[in-house]
Every structure is written in structure tokens, then in C-alpha cells.
UniProtKB/TrEMBL annotation:
Pfam families: NADH_dehy_S2_C, Proton_antipo_M. Belongs to the complex I subunit 2 family. Core subunit of the mitochondrial membrane respiratory chain NADH dehydrogenase (Complex I) which catalyzes electron transfer from NADH through the respiratory chain, using ubiquinone as an electron acceptor. Essential for the catalytic activity and assembly of complex I. Keywords: Electron transport, Membrane, Mitochondrion, Mitochondrion inner membrane, NAD, Respiratory chain, Translocase, Transmembrane, Transmembrane helix, Transport, Ubiquinone. Residues 280-333 form the NADH dehydrogenase subunit 2 C-terminal domain. Its EC number is 7.1.1.2. It comes from the Eukaryota. This is NADH-ubiquinone oxidoreductase chain 2. One of its GO terms (biological process) is mitochondrial electron transport, NADH to ubiquinone. It is found in: Mitochondrion inner membrane. Residues 13-276 form the NADH:quinone oxidoreductase/Mrp antiporter transmembrane domain. The keyword NAD applies.
Length: 336
């Protein structure tokens, strides 16, 4: 309830103090969820998350106070002072985990459970994204474009050598944030659409991984013995998150590349499209491990000969939507 309250306060506020209050409520609400397992790794993740978010909130409050000092305005949409815009971009980038402020996110996600990781990757990113959209006319386009390309590059590059699934999904999130940020100034509605579809696909993958108890590549190789149909559709959801054309994940990338081309930013569109191939490699590796590969030696994991075949209706609905939403693209073209 506190998470929903903090998100609602931040998204619906016009005053900087109310937005800051909502972000603080969110931070204080998620910390017990991260540390509830009482494992040293979880406590470490909660501490890292608290320190990072506290620093980002302080910077955000300082930027709004600086803007109010010079302009007399506390309205979120009236952010006009250059120093305040730079500080706000830094603060929101730290909260989201954009490059070069991404170091905390993979560590925190790895120390959390799957359900808490789902909240960190989706719901906790909504208030900072809303603040970016509200202040987008005042932000520096060169800075945002540089950070977006760096996020897409680093998210793909760092995900290549990971064996822990949560870290792979963390770097995937950083890469998708780059796609959201690069189109922010030119079409904020498209940023919101990309965020919604990213949340849909990530929720489907996290819930499926939580059901099959997959945490790394080794357990993913033996996941087919638990629920074979879910593992197969999980492969399609991973390829959708990678952005392969027949699936839902291709839709936001298609629209973003089209919009960047309209804005005469063809080199930027080409660069970020090529950088997404790095991410496609580790998504293909995950899909390959989930459905095709068997371990070459005797596995230490217990085989589930008598498996629980029941899958929650929410997981099947989310996976179906994350695979089959591309035919709705003409309707989205009309609305945007």
C-alpha cells in the first residue's frame, strides 16, 4: 500500500516537495521487502539501495530548491534554471540506474527475491520516469542522448558474461532505459508506451522464473522437467524482450527508430539499433538454455518427475500479451 501511495503522490503532484515526499515513501516501503529474507546479501542490497536513493533524493530536492531560489517557482513543469536541470537529470538518472549511475542496480537486484526484483525493475521506475516526462522540455538533449546510447551499449555489453538471471535482467533493464531516454524529448508518449510494454514483458518473465525457481543458467538448463509448456513460452517472452520482429518487443523499437529518423537523427537511430544486437546475443543464449540445451554432465539438481502442472492465469495472460501484441500496432499508430 505504501508503494502504491508513494507512486500515486509523485505521479499526480505539481509541487516539487510532494514529488520528493512520494519518492521517499517509495524508498522506505521497498527496503523491508528487499531485506525480509535476513540473508547477508539481502541486507547488503537494502543498504546499497537506501544510500543510493537517499543521495538521489537529496540531489532532487537541491535542484528544486535551486530553481525556486532563482525563479520563485515550485511547479514541476517550470524547471528553467540550467543548473537545476543538470542536477535534476543527475538525480533521476541515479534513481533509474542510467549509465554512468548504474552500478547499484545489478547488485541490488541480485540480492533481492524474484518478486521484489520485479517491483524494483517495474513499479519503482515509474515515478522517476514520470518526472522525466514532466520536465522533458527543459532537459539537455545532448546529455540525454549521450546517456541513452551509453546505457544501451553498457546494458548489452555487461550482460554478455553473466550467468545469474537476475543480473542479466538488470542489464536488460539498463539497456531498455536507454531506448526510453533517447526518444524522451521528441515523443514523450512513445517513452511511456515503451515503459508500459517493458513492464509487461518483464513481469511475465519474472513471474515465470519465480514459478519454475530458475536463478541461473545451470538451473535454466533443467527447467524443462518442471513445466515444459511454460519453459517454451518463456523462451518466446525472452525473445520478445530482445525485440525480435514478430513479437511484441519489436513494436517500441520500431516506433522509436521511425521517430528518430523523422527527427533527422539517422546516425543515432543506427547506433542504438546496432547496440541492441549485443543484448540480443544474451537473450538468445537464455532462450537456447531454456529449451534446447541439456547439461553435458550429470546435473546436481533434483529432477522433478512428478511436477505441478498448474500455472497461474496471470502468468499465462502476461506471457500471451508479451508475445502477441504486435498486431495492435496500427491502432497505436493512430493514437500517437
Amino acid at each position: 500500500m505504501s508503494l502504491l501511495l508513494g507512486t500515486t503522490i509523485t505521479v499526480s503532484s505539481n509541487h516539487w516537495m510532494m514529488a520528493w515526499t512520494g519518492l521517499e515513501i517509495n524508498t522506505l516501503a521497498i527496503i523491508p521487502l528487499i531485506s525480509k529474507s535476513h540473508h547477508p546479501r539481502a541486507i547488503e542490497a537494502a543498504t546499497k539501495y537506501f544510500l543510493t536513493q537517499a543521495a538521489a533524493s537529496t540531489l532532487l530536492l537541491f535542484s528544486s530548491m535551486t530553481n525556486a531560489w532563482f525563479t520563485g517557482q515550485w511547479d514541476i513543469t517550470q524547471l528553467t534554471h540550467p543548473t537545476s536541470c543538470l542536477l535534476l537529470t543527475t538525480a533521476v538518472s541515479i534513481k533509474l540506474g542510467l549509465t554512468p549511475f548504474h552500478f547499484w542496480f545489478p547488485e541490488v537486484l541480485q540480492g533481492s527475491s524474484m518478486t521484489t526484483g520485479l517491483l524494483l525493475a517495474t513499479l519503482m521506475k515509474f515515478p522517476p520516469t514520470a518526472l522525466l516526462i514532466l520536465t522533458s522540455p527543459s532537459l539537455n538533449p545532448n546529455l540525454l542522448t549521450t546517456m541513452a546510447i551509453a546505457s544501451a551499449a553498457l546494458g548489452g555489453w555487461m550482460g554478455l558474461n553473466q550467468t545469474q538471471i537476475r543480473k542479466v535482467l538488470a542489464f536488460s533493464s539498463i539497456s531498455h532505459l536507454g531506448w526510453m531516454t533517447i526518444i524522451l524529448l521528441y515523443n514523450p508518449k512513445l517513452t511511456l508506451l515503451t515503459f508500459y510494454l517493458y513492464c509487461l514483458m518483464t513481469s511475465a518473465i519474472f513471474l515465470a522464473l519465480n514459478t519454475t525457481k530458475i536463478t541461473n543458467l545451470a538451473t535454466m538448463m533443467t527447467a524443462w522437467t518442471k513445466i515444459p509448456p511454460l519453459t517454451t513460452t518463456l523462451m518466446l517472452a525472452l525473445l520478445s524482450l530482445a525485440g525480435l520482429p514478430p513479437l511484441t518487443g519489436f513494436l517500441p523499437k520500431w516506433l522509436i527508430i521511425q521517430e528518430l529518423t523523422k527527427q533527422e537523427m539517422t546516425p543515432v537511430a543506427t547506433t542504438i539499433a546496432l547496440l541492441s544486437l549485443l543484448g540480443l546475443f544474451f537473450y538468445l543464449r537464455l532462450a537456447y538454455c531454456a529449451t534446447i540445451t541439456l547439461p553435458p554432465n550429470s546435473s546436481n539438481h533434483m529432477k522433478h518427475w512428478q511436477t505441478n502442472k498448474s500455472v497461474h492465469i496471470l502468468i499465462t495472460t502476461l506471457i500471451s500479451l508479451s508475445i502477441l501484441l504486435l498486431p495492435l500496432s496500427p491502432m497505436i499508430f493512430k493514437t500517437t
